[in-house]
């Protein structure tokens, strides 16, 4: 029996992924790759929609791929590749651009959010059509399932609309994917600013737990996490965002439920909680970091793995692009 196809990806937008990416994406992917024919991409074409430095991009792309593998994405069971190594992404995105309404694209809230600060004059057309490239990513692999966070729902809906529109205009060509929101996925917040989510673009360097941080750096950041003056260890994201965030981290990484942790830490101080969180984070991240650094220390071997995976991805994507080109009259 063939497994259903799954597609997901992350931008290579930092040297290291962070605890939010790890918990919200990599841990899920690692589970899902058993039950699905999974395709995981480092989406570097998306990363050039904003100003970028080429040498840095190349480095971030390799580091992101290494962290996927180090975190447990198996490049012989899943297809793990760099998007720019598969030309069909850009080719299909062009075709999809021609069936996307300008008004439809203008309604994408993520573009509005991303351009809110600097204004439209500073934005590239590439950033505007980013969701169309994302649709191409998904449709090229006949993905049935696209596990994403709630913030990506609108883009997946657009992908479905474009697939259905193309199919009805040009004949059955695309698999229409399901929106599969990772509901139960815990959200991780900035340790210094627990009202906002931990993000690569976050501005409090000490609030972000990087997967590639040295263990003692992780411990320092966790020990200096912002809490409150209430003194009790309870999960209450509205009133106690800092403590609740620490409980989330400990629950996800340590495998205990939040109520069990509340019981365990009843009457104890924040220092104890932080110590336990630090132990759990270091136990989880240190081996991933070591493995990632090993992979990065052998560039030829990492390239060999990525090239082999890109060839597998390319074979699937080319076949879909062929159907599309035939359908539109090329
Ligand atoms: P960032 O906001 O740091 O740029 P991305 O938007 O690239 O992160 O997110 C990549 C993946 O990581 C997505 O699947 C997203 O749901 C997950 N993710 C990012 N930040 C968090 C977070 N703070 N908590 C949980 N999951 C997160
Ligand atoms: Na983001």
TrEMBL record:
Reactions listed under catalytic activity: tRNA(Trp) + L-tryptophan + ATP = L-tryptophyl-tRNA(Trp) + AMP + diphosphate + H(+)
Subcellular localization(s) per the UniProt record: Cytoplasm
Enzyme nomenclature, EC number: 6.1.1.2
Chief location category: cytoplasm
GO terms of molecular function: ATP binding; tryptophan-tRNA ligase activity
PROSITE patterns cross-referenced by the UniProt entry: AA_TRNA_LIGASE_I (PS00178)
Binding site for ATP: 11-13, 20-21, 149-151, 188, 197-201
CDD domains in alphabetical order: TrpRS_core
InterPro entries cross-referenced by the UniProt entry: aa-tRNA-synth_I_CS, aa-tRNA-synth_Ic, Rossmann-like_a/b/a_fold, Trp-tRNA-ligase, Trp-tRNA-ligase_bac-type, Trp-tRNA_synthetase
Coiled coil: none
Annotated keywords: Aminoacyl-tRNA synthetase, ATP-binding, Cytoplasm, Ligase, Nucleotide-binding, Protein biosynthesis
Gene Ontology BP, a term: tryptophanyl-tRNA aminoacylation
Residues reported to bind L-tryptophan: 137
Family note: Belongs to the class-I aminoacyl-tRNA synthetase family.
Task performed by this protein: Catalyzes the attachment of tryptophan to tRNA(Trp).
Subunit structure comment from the entry: Homodimer.
UniProt name for this protein: Tryptophan--tRNA ligase
Annotated organism of origin: Protaetiibacter larvae
């Amino acid at each position: 029996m063939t497994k259903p196809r799954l597609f997901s990806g992350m931008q290579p937008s930092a040297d290291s992924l962070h605890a939010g990416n790890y918990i919200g994406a990599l841990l899920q992917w690692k589970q899902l790759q058993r039950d699905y024919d999974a395709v995981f991409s480092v989406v570097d074409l998306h990363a050039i929609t904003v100003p970028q430095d080429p040498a840095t991009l190349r480095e971030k792309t390799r580091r992101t791929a290494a962290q996927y593998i180090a975190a447990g994405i198996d490049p012989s069971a899943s297809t793990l590749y760099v998007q720019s190594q598969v030309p069909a992404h850009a080719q299909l995105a062009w075709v999809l651009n021609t069936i996307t309404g300008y008004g439809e694209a203008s309604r994408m809230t993520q573009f509005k959010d991303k351009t809110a600060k600097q204004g439209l004059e500073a934005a590239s057309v590439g950033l505007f059509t980013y969701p169309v490239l994302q649709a191409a990513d998904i449709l090229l692999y006949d993905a049935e399932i696209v596990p994403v966070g709630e913030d990506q729902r609108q883009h997946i809906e657009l992908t479905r609309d474009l697939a259905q529109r193309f199919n009805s205009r040009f004949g059955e060509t695309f698999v229409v994917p399901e929106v599969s929101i990772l509901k139960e996925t815990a959200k991780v917040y900035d340790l210094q600013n627990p009202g906002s989510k931990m993000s690569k673009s976050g501005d409090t360097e000490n609030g972000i737990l990087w997967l590639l941080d040295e263990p003692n750096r992780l411990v320092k950041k966790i020990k200096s996490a912002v809490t409150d003056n209430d003194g009790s260890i309870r999960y209450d994201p509205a009133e106690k965002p800092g403590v609740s965030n620490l409980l989330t981290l400990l629950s996800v990484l340590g495998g205990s439920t939040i109520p069990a942790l509340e019981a365990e830490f009843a009457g104890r101080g924040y220092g104890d909680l932080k110590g336990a969180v630090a132990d759990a984070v270091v136990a989880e991240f240190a081996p991933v970091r070591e493995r990632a650094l090993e992979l990065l220390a052998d560039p030829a071997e990492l390239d060999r793995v990525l090239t082999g995976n890109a060839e597998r991805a390319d074979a699937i994507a080319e076949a879909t692009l062929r159907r599309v080109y035939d359908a539109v009259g090329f």
